[in-house]
Write a structure and sequence with these properties.
The protein has 79 residues and is an alpha/beta fold. It is built from 3 helices and 4 strands. It has a 4-stranded mixed sheet with strand order 1-2-3-4. Helix 2 links the parallel strand 3 and strand 4. Helix 1 packs parallel to helix 2.
């Protein structure tokens, strides 16, 4: 998904998985950011991220929004 808010552009990978999300999604978001000339890459999921995904995201500057962040953004309190 490509998005823009307050003149900042985003390349977003949305993952609805039954298990935690791995580093492939981080690589996809990072690649989308570069290919589409966006400012920020994000992976958002209904789950959590593997340690490898977290480490790779930190190295590449990709934002990770897990189920807690998703609930926070939609105003929910359920986990």
């Amino acid at each position: 998904m490509l998005a823009e808010k307050d003149d900042i552009t985003y390349a977003i990978q949305c993952k609805c998985y039954s298990d935690n999300v791995g580093n492939a999604a981080v690589q996809q978001a990072h690649t989308g950011k570069i290919l589409y000339h966006k400012d920020i890459a994000v992976v958002i999921t209904n789950r959590y991220f593997t340690q490898q995904a977290i480490e790779e995201a930190q190295a590449l500057g990709v934002k990770l929004w897990d189920r807690d962040k998703l609930n926070e953004m939609i105003g929910g309190t359920n986990k």
